[in-house]
Amino acid sequence: MFVLGVLYAVLITTSAEFCYKDVENVCSQKLTSVLSDDLTLSNCNAKYGGIDSMQIELQAYANGHIETSFEFLLMSTHFGNYESNRVGFKNLYRKLSDSAWEKSIDLIKYITKRGGSMNFNQLPHFKKNEKDSHVLELTEIHSLAKALDSQKQLAAEGLRLHIQAKKYQDAAIAHYLEEKFLESQSDVVRVLAGHTSDLKNMLDRDASVAIFLFDEYLQKIL
């Protein structure tokens, strides 16, 4: 604990020295025009640790959650229309959509908190299945399989980023990913895997009744 305290103090001192040097250079100038046009406080920011190395990765991960959120929203709309009328599935995918959206917002806030900025043009680093990436009018069982695959991709990418954060010795990012993403993602993957398995077993008997009962079940638990 003492060693961590010393390292933290050294980190703060080092950062302060860099910022102090910038301020000293600016204040040493006498011309106002030079102050406003040519000099910047480039080291007086919230960046430390491995944020510079991780920023693009985190931007891509945030955009991946936004993309997934819209996919779930479209799936929710599909099952909520008058033809499908599967309120349970509608609620399930709306909940997953809202969760992915909230996680993306939280991650964007964290990036800026660490002194970075968000780039919405940064593509996600995981690839979706080309065969069904644009297929949103799915059957109930296929929609669960698609949802499970999407959540597994997000979870796997989160684990990869966690390893990267450790590589760059940024415990803060690693802890953030564990707390805000990895723990909850494992729960969601388990639940969706259970839903997929349960519905598949029910379909072996009477498909129409099975889907109706399963949708009723989803309405009760959500």
TrEMBL record:
One of its GO terms (biological process) is intracellular iron ion homeostasis. Keywords: Iron, Iron storage, Metal-binding, Signal. Residues 1-16 form the signal peptide. GO terms for molecular function: ferric iron binding; ferrous iron binding. InterPro entries: Ferritin, Ferritin-like, Ferritin-like_diiron, Ferritin-like_SF, Ferritin_CS, Ferritin_DPS_dom. Residues 48-203 form the Ferritin-like diiron domain. Fe cation binds at Q185. GO terms for cellular component: cytoplasm. Stores iron in a soluble, non-toxic, readily available form. Important for iron homeostasis. Iron is taken up in the ferrous form and deposited as ferric hydroxides after oxidation. Belongs to the ferritin family. This is Ferritin.
